[in-house]
Design a protein that fits this description.
2 domains; Rna Polymerase Sigma Factor, Chain: A; 193 residues; mainly alpha; Arc Repressor Mutant, subunit A
Length: 193
């Protein structure tokens, strides 16, 4: 497992060196490797596809512009997630008013929550929307940790490096986030807390 990780790291470093020389193919390879993860992170922040796609595009633009600042030997994944996180925060600050306007959709209580058929696609869609709305109610840090841990499969120490906090704080925030999500979702799923 560690050997595979070392090979992946070496391959990324080779691609980054090629990007520094203007190799477009290497850049597109890095984009294809990381765009889904960056999208997941951004989507967790905004719960909006267009905003998340804007962040993905801006993240890779910054990568291309600042590739010479990346220090070989460091974690590329942590570096690119840090860029994406910072862009999310900046974008959120600049566009908060617009985001509030967009969030004036139907409330969770207005959704169809008939659970007679758990595999009904409309119920599945409603459940996803409930989870998304509940995820949105977490603090930004808790929300980012849930996405990085469960969608991007990052380890606690990797999340800690990206967020510039200790691994213990990440574990604590993750535990609180899971408890908060359970509390937020359970009334709609008839689950005991």
């Amino acid at each position: 497992m560690e050997r595979k990780s070392n090979e992946e790291t070496r391959d990324i470093y080779i691609l980054l060196e090629r990007i520094k020389t203007g190799d477009r193919e290497a850049f597109m390879k890095v984009v294809s490797l990381y765009q889904r993860r960056i999208f997941s992170l951004a989507f967790s922040f905004f719960q909006n596809r267009e905003d998340a796609l804007d962040i993905v595009q801006e993240t890779f633009l910054r990568l291309y512009q600042k590739i010479h600042y990346f220090k070989m030997g460091k974690s590329f994944q942590n570096w690119i997630f840090q860029i994406a996180k910072n862009l999310c925060i900046d974008y959120y600050r600049k566009n908060y008013g617009r985001r509030k306007e967009r969030d004036r959709g139907r409330s969770i209580e207005e959704m169809n929550l008939a659970f007679d058929n758990a595999y009904d696609s409309s119920n599945s869609s409603d459940l996803k929307e409930i989870f998304s709305r509940c995820l949105k109610k977490l603090s930004k840090k808790q929300r980012m940790i849930v996405v990085m841990k469960h969608y991007n499969q990052l380890k606690y120490r990797e999340i800690a490096q990206i967020l510039s906090i200790s691994p213990g704080t990440v574990k604590s925030l993750h535990f609180k986030a899971v408890q908060n999500l359970k509390g937020l979702v359970s009334p709609y799923l008839e689950i005991d807390k």
